[in-house]
Specification:
Blueprint: H1 4-13, E1 19-22, H2 36-45, E2 49-52, H3 58-74, H4 78-82
Parallel strand pairs: 1-2
Length: 88
Amino acid sequence: MGYSPLAFEAMNVLGKNGVLILSSVTGGGRTVEVPADKINLGFVLGNKVMVGTVNANREYFENGIKSFSQAELHYPGWLSRLLTHPIN
């Protein structure tokens, strides 16, 4: 998103069981006041998740597939249980 106030606003309004994916970074030295306790409480009691991601090339995706395959060998069946509500 590139604009940190929006990132924190998204954290603040994310719904119960929601997942927030941050797929860009912000630059500069901007500071913003946030309701940190409210956000923290909402994430814990609302069972919310926030993850960050970066751009990846084909090699990274191939490594990810390899890692999933290895994990499936060690822990059979875990991958099919990872996604509980697939959306097509």
